[in-house]
Design a protein that fits this description.
This protein is mainly alpha-helical and 297 residues long. The chain contains 14 helices and no strands. Helix 1 crosses helix 13 and helix 7 runs antiparallel to helix 14.
Length: 297
């Protein structure tokens, strides 16, 4: 595959992830908590990928197994639990805005904390791109316009906003960890281990409140249909494709596509939920597209 095809893969993933919020919202309305959502979607994804990926259980080196453990937490349980908990105690606009800072955080992590990673990214031309930071900031400005959609009602909630920022940091760390592992293992193996450790690290949270196993809930078409969508498509397929895109494009370039997520979400909200799109939000969408294009030059 050429570079353009990997860019299209990253774009496809963001399109799916940008619409996955509809399925998540539906499941919440049927009584599945954020923890239940994450647990069952990753359980489906892990069960599916077990039949596709390499069957060996552990990485070749203890250090790599530890990195996989960190990737499962940062790209799985910590990311989803911090983000979903933030949505319960702060404004959705705050959470969405802070989550979209992960590409800029990835740039800083890549350059300041991961010298080896920076050298790898240079092979992709990322650190030689003088427009990268400018494009990222332009896209972030567009994100602000899209998320608030003409309603600038920013209310600070310290705990919720810190959790949203933690989710962004966690995702940025996940992308950096992927680049540390992609030369030694197949993407199927890495993705399978991410699902496994994501599930394993979530189990302690169910000690006081076990997951919802109510058969009446799962017999409803809307529930199992949305779970299949989230588990098999948005998780199994999309994590594999995203990890592959990060491997081929580099951590920084791939992460720039995260800025497009609010645009997809805005469109899905208008179509599915009937939400209004303002001219200011459309201007923000245009800024995002220009910013991403500039960052990818």
């Amino acid at each position: 595959m050429n570079k353009l095809q990997y860019h299209l893969l990253a774009l496809l993933v963001i399109l799916i992830w940008g619409t996955a919020f509809v399925a998540t919202k539906m499941l919440l309305s049927y009584g599945l908590s954020p923890r239940d959502n994450f647990f069952f979607r990753f359980l489906l994804a892990y069960g599916g990928i077990w039949f596709l990926g390499p069957r060996y259980l552990f990485a070749k080196r203890p250090r790599d197994e530890f990195l996989l453990f960190l990737a499962g937490i940062s790209g799985g349980s910590l990311y989803y639990m911090a983000g979903n908990t933030a949505l319960e105690i702060t404004q959705a606009s705050n959470a969405a805005l802070l989550a979209c800072t992960s590409p800029i955080l990835t740039i800083f992590f890549s350059r300041a904390l991961q010298k080896d990673e920076s050298k790898k990214d240079e092979s992709h031309g990322e650190n030689k791109n003088p427009h990268l930071l400018k494009g990222s900031l332009l896209a972030l400005a567009g994100v602000i316009l899209v998320i608030f959609n003409g309603r600038f009602l920013l209310q600070i909630n310290p705990l919720g906003d810190l959790l949203s920022l933690l989710a962004a940091l966690s995702w940025a760390l996940y992308i950096i960890l992927l680049k540390q592992l992609d030369g030694s293992y197949s993407m199927l193996f890495i993705t399978r281990k991410v699902f496994f450790y994501g599930l394993l690290s979530l189990l302690p949270l169910f000690y006081l409140e076990p997951p919802n196993w109510n058969p009446h809930v799962f017999m409803q078409r809307a529930v199992w249909g949305n779970l299949l969508y989230l588990g098999l498509l948005a998780s199994l397929v999309c994590y594999f494709l995203w990890n592959t895109a990060v491997k081929r494009l580099g951590a920084v370039r791939a992460s720039a596509y995260v800025y497009l997520s609010p645009v997809v979400t805005m469109g899905a909200s208008a179509i599915v939920l009937g939400e209004t799109i303002t001219l200011l939000a459309l201007a923000g969408a245009l800024l995002i597209l220009v910013g991403v294009a500039l960052a990818e030059r």
